[in-house]
Amino acid sequence: MDDTPVQDRLDALERRVGLLEDEVAIHRLINSWGPAVDTGNAEAAASLFADDGILESDLSYLIGPPAIAAMVHGEGHQSLIRGGSAHIPAFPIVRVEGERASATGYTRVYRHTDEGYEVWRLSANHWEFRRTDKGWLVTRRTNHVIDGGPEAPAILTQLFDEA
Amino acid sequence: MDDTPVQDRLDALERRVGLLEDEVAIHRLINSWGPAVDTGNAEAAASLFADDGILESDLSYLIGPPAIAAMVHGEGHQSLIRGGSAHIPAFPIVRVEGERASATGYTRVYRHTDEGYEVWRLSANHWEFRRTDKGWLVTRRTNHVIDGGPEAPAILTQLFDEA
Amino acid sequence: MDDTPVQDRLDALERRVGLLEDEVAIHRLINSWGPAVDTGNAEAAASLFADDGILESDLSYLIGPPAIAAMVHGEGHQSLIRGGSAHIPAFPIVRVEGERASATGYTRVYRHTDEGYEVWRLSANHWEFRRTDKGWLVTRRTNHVIDGGPEAPAILTQLFDEA
To answer: Which value does ipTM take for this structure?
Structure first.
């Protein structure tokens, strides 16, 4: 029989369960981006980011929810939606460290075309998160298309640097 | 030291762990569809649905496991398998509410062709589930191809309506 | 009120949480392969495998971490990276049984080309894992491209054989 004091076992279990819940919450955050931007829900997309959250890619550098909402409302994005789009992340690797977390993985943007579906953008991503009183929020998402250049591998390799 | 009564902490932990297990079980259910239909295992595909479970898409409206099994046995599906197919869901967002649950996300059907692989169908999905004595089962799956029309966004936006 | 002895409830919770943590660890292992091989990190890729771990596919049959590292360093793989590649698994189904585990699912290798992105390889996979003092490691990964032949369905159907 385990003779660890009951309080200690409960404390340990609560920490472990909390960590699993954090992972689930962060996957939910990442996986909400697609349904938000593919339906043109600028408010839902913006609400995933902290007030000082940054979305940095080879396409743009946006700071804060209003800038992200403006991107969704913009003609470039609206045109993408009108054709039929799907923003689909792969299952990323999440790392939680107290009130901070990060994730590393791939994302794809699909477009519907007359000839079927194409992967328009396939990107390497690194996300950073902060636990807030509104739950986990994105503080930074950096992505770059995979095109054979050094930028995308530099993003992905952060997974191993952090280990 | 946490002075919450031990019984209360155990109760809370059991609820939280049960919720995490429910999420895992629902992902397993969703992710079993591909291996079932891509191997022509009609029984396995049908067994994911409740007796009154509905599979509704722009292609068909099927009610109950026998109708789903018949779809798998049908010439359209058999022809798809013979060429080489892969039904791959993206990581969906799952919400569990007691004995009911739902999920929202994307699915792709890939076909092997002489020129390589194509995404033949890329769809928005909303699943509903019920906990039964055989575990979680699908009570309704609604999907629609993403083609720029309003149907697919209407499916995805349920994620935010439910929130 | 639940009158199960506190020790028994703690034991049961620890087992259940351990199982959830095992699933997360195995997803992490599977999802680390892409960032490792797409950045040319041979050591990180090799370290996912047990000393006697096997990577078997229609392309090659590799035994042990050094053989896997050599594959990453090889000209075929280096050429793939130079063009821009992404190895993306779908969300697999994981089954944990004590010190052993398995997973079944799909993987894709994307290549960047002058015309955009193509799915170069779309494969059925079955992984086997062993818990070691370095955590979970791959003891065998078998994959085969989905091409309409019987090999890929034979891999996927193991999911139902194991059930």
So the answer is: 0.95
